[in-house]
Write a structure and sequence with these properties.
This protein is mostly helical and 62 residues long. Helices cover 82% and strands 0% of the residues.
């Protein structure tokens, strides 16, 4: 399994957990805020990976 697929799977699982926590505890609960931070970091990781792979695949201008 390639890394972007693994990251997107983690993102989806964490998004569902965030939704569940928000429903059960409200948006201002510390668990919800921590889960939101975890999800943010996973999304950042995904975009860092995509950015690095785009840089590797760029063709030289000259």
């Amino acid at each position: 399994m390639s890394e972007p697929i693994q990251i997107t799977d983690k993102i989806e699982r964490n998004r569902q957990e965030l939704s569940r926590l928000a429903e059960n505890h409200g948006m201002q609960d510390n668990q919800v805020l921590r889960q939101s931070m975890v999800l943010d970091e996973l999304i950042n990781e995904y975009y860092r990976f995509k950015y690095k792979s785009q840089l590797r695949n760029r063709q030289p201008i000259a």
